[in-house]
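Mods, move this if it's the wrong board.
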Amino acid sequence: MRHPILLSAALMGTLAMAACDRSGDAQVERALQDVNVIDETNLNDVMLTVADPNEAVNYFLRSSTNDPGRIDLMRGLAISLIRARRPSEAATAWNAVVNHEDATLDDTVDLADALIRNNDWDGAEEVLDTIPPTHETFKRFRLEAMVADSNQEWANADSFYETAIGLTTSPAGVLNNWGFSKLTRGDYSGAERLFIDSLRNDAGLFTAKNNLVLTRGVQRNYDLPVVQMTQIERAQLLHTLALTAIKQNDITIGSGLLREAINTHPQHFEAAVRSLRALEDNVTN
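Not the wrong board. Structure tokens:
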């Protein structure tokens, strides 16, 4: 009489063991899936930062094709196209991201950025106008300032630049942009002040050094400013000053500055040599 009971107990034990096995298999499968996600995330990060931009484009293009509709892969493709300096394709890619159901307002800002890089200022302005004013980010206001500059809406540009600077701990780039905006308006003192502020935040920003020299040059101040510079940078800045002087018909000063630039550069300064030859040929003729 006890055999059926033993059989039932054994059967129940077998079923329980099978259930445990299935449960264990499921746990292992889930764990492997988690590992794959982590590995893929790490690979995506590598592709977005240290990989060759065109290689990253190919990677995200393949990944998006194999797994369509994943917004992280779509963003990766759009970002990689920007890094690869392919703004037209990037604008198309960001437009696809913005139309995704999981898109954010930051994606819309990135679309505007791609349009500006593609020289589509009207399109960028239209996209920025769709973003609610409550979305206050550094990148949004920096782009708003650039669009206002392109429209010569100087008061708006100044307001947007000032707001953008208050939203970042690394304002050197936007200070340089604001300074160049002042330079194009003929506000030379304002431009100089902003370029100096830019260099105070990032002493190595050569664009700000060059813009500062250019601003001084258009005022016929042909002395280099007292800023940190390497010997190569000094030669390049002298070249900028020389070209500015020549453009203003200060030929003798420009010629002297070109010679100084050539002598200052630690290697052969081909650009300055060409400029001096062209100047001498023109004077001779």
